[in-house]
Design brief:
elongated
């Protein structure tokens, strides 16, 4: 079967094996320009070399690639395995992936994690200039209130997930974030260069000293943050905005 005019494919929850996907792609998709695929549990899809071969040989025209992988709960707890968070990131760390301006992301929720690869888009304008040049972007995303409770068990889970990865961007979409929790998270991520928050963290400014906060963070965490994007900012948030300016 040939589909000579097929340019884009979306698989929202793809349940077929990687072998079956390969057979499908090899038959019809040499002209494919965009592939968007979501997979759950099947660790065969975390083989970066296999993806690289498939794209080079059978999707040479591919311009946009979006891949989402959700491991099982058991796999998600095995942080030292080849399909753990650091294993996933390293599988897609070759020049082939970096040259294609791919944005690698780990989203850690209270229950499970999601690994993603996305083509770089213009709306990522909060990413630092150096990252835009070398495309070595590894984003950690902390999800919204519906799926993530920011408490000590979550921080413990987060530590195990990020300990072997040099994340360069942090995106927090959680309205219950406190300044103490943010500082705890930044302490685990000394290579962060850009920060995006859906809302300004909850904190009493009068109880904080910027000098004390800087003294409790790794030097690299202070020196590397060059871009901050804050959501839901109002005129009443002037002091909070100044706090983030001073922190960087």
């Amino acid at each position: 079967m040939k589909l000579p005019h097929l340019k884009s494919i979306y698989f929202v929850e793809f349940s077929a094996s990687f072998d079956e996907l390969e057979a499908f792609i090899e038959k019809i998709c040499s002209q494919l320009q965009m592939l968007n695929i979501g997979v759950c549990y099947d660790k065969a899809y975390l083989n970066g070399n296999r993806w690289e071969r498939l794209i080079k040989e059978y999707m040479p025209e591919l311009e946009k690639f979006y891949f989402n992988f959700t491991p099982s709960s058991d796999d998600d707890r095995k942080t030292n395995s080849s399909y753990s968070s650091d294993g996933f990131i390293h599988q897609f760390n070759s020049p082939f992936w970096l040259e294609r301006k791919l944005f690698r992301e780990l989203e850690v929720n209270s229950i499970t994690s999601t690994f993603s690869i996305r083509s770089y888009r213009k709306e990522y304008n909060y990413i630092s200039n150096r990252e835009k040049i070398d495309h070595g972007i590894i984003q950690l995303t902390i999800g919204n209130n519906e799926y993530t409770k920011l408490d000590r068990p979550y921080i413990k889970k987060l530590k195990s997930a990020v300990k072997a990865i040099q994340f360069t961007h942090l995106d927090i979409d959680n309205d219950n974030l406190t300044i103490k929790m943010l500082l705890d998270i930044l302490h685990m991520l000394p290579n962060i260069e850009s920060l995006k928050l859906s809302s300004i963290p909850i904190f009493p400014l009068e109880s904080l000293s910027i000098e004390d906060i800087k003294n409790n963070l790794p030097v690299s965490a202070i020196n590397k943050i060059t871009q901050v994007k804050l959501g839901q900012v109002t005129e009443d948030d002037e002091e909070e905005i100044e706090f983030f300016i001073n922190l960087c």
